[in-house]
Amino acid sequence: MNEQLAKNFAPGHSACAGCAFPAIVRAVLGEVADGTEIVVANATGCLEVTSTLYPYTAWKIPWIHNAFENAAATLSGVEKAYEILKRKKKLPGGDKKIKFVAFGGDGGTYDIGLQSLSGALERGHNFLYVLYDNEGYMNTGNQRSSATPFGAATETTPTGKVSFGKTEVRKNLMDIVAAHHIPYVAQANVAFMADLKRKAKKALSIDGPTFLSVFSPCTNNWKFPTSQYVNIAKLATETNFWPLYEIENGKYKINWATEKPKSLTDFLKTQGRFKHLFSEKNKDVIEEMQKITDDEWKRLVGLVE
Amino acid sequence: MEHGAVIKHDLKKGPKTGAWRYMHPEVDKSKCIGCSTCVPFCPEASIEMKDKKAEIDYDYCKGCGVCAEVCPVKAILMKKK
C-alpha cells in the first residue's frame, strides 16, 4: 500500500475494480496543506456506500454522512458550528486549521442535493464541494440523472424500436453554480491529473465556497473494460465532450484546447451505453450529439474574454 | 451529549480486496522507467515506488488493469494466475 497516497482514503473500500473516484478523492485531499486537518461530508452515492461498509471505514479523517440530499447543508452546519466554537474559545483541542470538503456524485449534486448545495453556496460557507460526475445513478444500477448525456442508454431510458436512449440534453450545472457569484468554480477531469491537482489546490486556498466538477467514468454502467477509465476520460476532453475550464470571480478561462478536436464517435464507441447509436437508424442521433458538443464548445469559447 | 456511531479506521477490519483479482499486474523491473504515472491512477493506492521501480501491493490490488493501460513503456503486463 502506498502510505502517502492512502493517508486520507485507504484501500479496502469496495468500489468496483477500475473505478475512477478513489483517484479523484486522493488527488483532491492530497492538495490540503500539511498540518491542516480535513473534515469530509459525503452525499449518498457509490463513494459513500463503498467506502464505509460496517464495521470498516476507508476514511482516516473525520467523515460524516447524513442523507442523499443534504451533504452541503450538513457540512455548512459543521463549518458554522466550528467557527462559532472557535470564536467562543470553546474548542476542546484548541483551534486548528480545518478544511471542509464535501463529496457528492451527480445524483446528489445535479438533482437531489441541488437545493441544499445552492443554499450553502449562497450563504457563503467556507467549503469545497467536489462533484464526481459519472453521469447517472450508478449505485442503484444506472438510472438517468440530469447529468446523463443525450443519447445514453440507461435503465430508465432504455433503447428499443422507437427510443434511442435519453432524449434530453444534460443540465449545465457549472453555470448554475457560477450564478451564485462564488469565487471559484472549475471543471476538471480525472485523466488530467496535474490540472485536477492544480484546481483542487486553488479551490482549497480560497476562503469561501468553491466548486469542482470532476469527470469520473463508471466501468460498470458505461459498460467498458475495467482498465479503461483513464483512456475514456482523456477522450472526453479531447473530443470537447468534457472541456476543462474554470470560472474565477465570473471570468471564464479554458485550460485545455486543441486545434483539431477528435470526432465524438471516438469517445462514444468506447462505451456500451452508446452502442445502440451505431446502427443505421440512429445515425442522426450521433450527428445531433456532435452538434450539441460543438455548440456547447462554441458557447464556452464565446464566454472567454 | 450522546454520540452517534463513531467508527474508527482500522485496516485490519477491512476486506483484503486482492481476493477480487482475476488478472494480476506484473511489473517488468527492467522496463520500468520510474516515471510513477501509474501511481495516482490506482484506485486502491497499491502502487509504490521502491528504488525508482513500481511495486504492487497484491493484498489490495483488484486487478483492474489501469496501471498496465497508463504505463507509457508497457512495463506492466496483466497475467492470469
Structural features:
heterodimer; A: 305 residues; alpha/beta; Rossmann fold; 8-stranded mixed beta sheet; globular; B: 81 residues; alpha+beta; Alpha-Beta Plaits; two-stranded antiparallel ribbon; 22% strand; elongated
Could you characterize the architecture of this molecule?
The complex is a heterodimer of chains A (305) and B (81). Chain A is of the alpha/beta class. Chain A is 34% helix and 14% strand. The longest helix of chain A has 21 residues. Chain B is an alpha+beta fold. Chain B has one domain: Alpha-Beta Plaits (2-Layer Sandwich). Chain B has a two-stranded antiparallel sheet. Chain B has a two-stranded antiparallel sheet with strand order 2-3. In chain B, β2 and β3 form a beta hairpin. The longest helix of chain B is centred in the last third of the chain and has 5 residues. The interface between A and B is large, with 39 and 34 residues.
- Low-confidence spans of chain A: pLDDT under 50, at least 5 residues? none
Please give the CATH architecture of chain A: 3-Layer(aba) Sandwich
Largest sheet strand order of chain B:
1-4
| Count of individual domains of chain A | 1
Helix-strand category of chain A: alpha/beta
Rg of chain A, please? 19 Å
The number of helices of chain A is 10
Low-confidence stretches of chain B: none
* Topology-level CATH name of chain B: Alpha-Beta Plaits
* Termini Cα gap of chain A: 46 Å
Cα shape of chain A:
globular
Overall number of strands of chain A: 8
Q: What is the total number of structural domains of chain B? A: 1
CATH topology annotation of chain A: Rossmann fold
SSE ordering of chain A: HEHEHEHHEHEHEHEEHH
**N/C terminus separation of chain B:** 53 Å
Helix percent band of chain A: 25-40%
CATH superfamily of chain A: Thiamin diphosphate (ThDP)-binding fold, Pyr/PP domains
Largest sheet of chain A: 8 strands, mixed
Determine the mean pLDDT of chain A. 95
Main β-sheet description of chain B: 2 strands, antiparallel
